[in-house]
Design goal:
Helix content: over 70%
Function: Role in flagellar biosynthesis.
Protein name: Flagellar biosynthetic protein FliR
Number of domains: 1
Structural class: mainly alpha
Transmembrane segments: 12-34, 40-58, 70-93, 130-153, 186-206, 213-238
Keywords: Bacterial flagellum, Cell membrane, Cell projection, Cilium, Flagellum, Membrane, Transmembrane, Transmembrane helix
Number of helices: 9
Distance between the termini: 41 Å
Subcellular location: Cell membrane; Bacterial flagellum basal body
Length: 265
């Protein structure tokens, strides 16, 4: 008869539960994988599958701690924080793209064209959602979801499971990374904003030259048409910019987990 002691059972559970919560936190916070349209069972099944594949590759020994103790609970929370931090980096990239769409839609006069987005659980502008879909397609085209899984797998060796976790200065760096929302969002929206600014200046001059002209009847369809035209012209140049922005996010994620280079299996 096979007998298993409580210490052996705790060791087996710790070897699987702690990596599982890091992977689950990543999947819950990362774009594409963490989309609310993906069923919860699929997310949990994917996390369990990745954990089964990753656990044998962990080189550093796990801490000899009871997973149900206070220290074990602290380690569990640390793994969740690490997973959320890694997923949050790429989430900021997608929010920056949607921010660009928000600015463009506001200047085009489409601020009223909003709908409920289940991914962000809030109201999203139509143009912002459109650019978000373009960013999602670019993310899948460069196998970003596979790179993210490879990074979380390699993070167990560069940032081993323990009570240390991520250093506090790293959280300051992560908070500063949030500035990419406004910087990259404005850079993506700048071509369309420039064309719309010139259009508004021309309409202002036209109003002063012909006061009898109904500027509201002419201005709205004109700015809307020029906005869509510039968006259609500049959309072809968005792909390399989005790819560069996503790769920059992966470089930041690598530095977050002390990984010098992402090695895709």
């Amino acid at each position: 008869m096979i007998s298993i002691t409580s210490a052996e059972l705790h060791a087996v559970m710790a070897a699987f539960v702690w990596p599982l919560f890091r992977v689950m936190a990543l999947i819950a916070s990362a774009p594409i994988l963490g989309n609310p349209s993906v069923p919860v069972r699929v997310k949990i099944g994917l996390a369990v599958l990745i954990t089964f594949l990753v656990t044998p590759t962990i080189e550093d020994p796990l801490p000899q701690v009871d997973p149900f103790s206070g220290v074990g609970l602290m380690i569990l929370i640390q793994q969740m924080i690490i997973g959320v931090a890694i997923g949050l980096v790429m989430r900021i990239v997608f929010v920056a793209v949607e921010m660009a769409g928000e600015i463009i839609g506001l200047q085009m006069g489409l601020a009223f064209a909003i709908f409920f987005d289940p991914q962000s659980a809030g109201q999203v502008a139509l143009v912002g959602r459109f650019l978000g879909i373009i960013a999602s397609l670019a993310f899948l085209a460069i196998d970003g979801h596979l790179l993210m899984i490879a990074l979380i797998a390699q993070s167990f060796n560069t940032l081993p499971i323990g009570t240390d976790g991520i250093a506090f200065p790293t959280f300051n760096t992560l908070a500063n990374w949030g500035s990419e929302i406004f910087k990259s969002g404005l850079q993506l929206a700048l071509p369309v904003l420039t064309a719309l600014l010139i259009t508004n200046l021309a309409l202002g001059i036209l109003t002063r030259a012909a006061p009898q002209l109904n500027i509201f009847a002419v201005g709205f369809p004109l700015t809307l048409s020029i906005g869509f035209l510039m968006l259609a012209v500049s959309i072809t140049f968005y792909t390399p910019i989005l790819e560069s922005l996503i790769l920059e996010g992966f470089e930041f994620m690598s530095s977050l987990v002390n990984l010098a280079e992402i090695k895709v299996p």
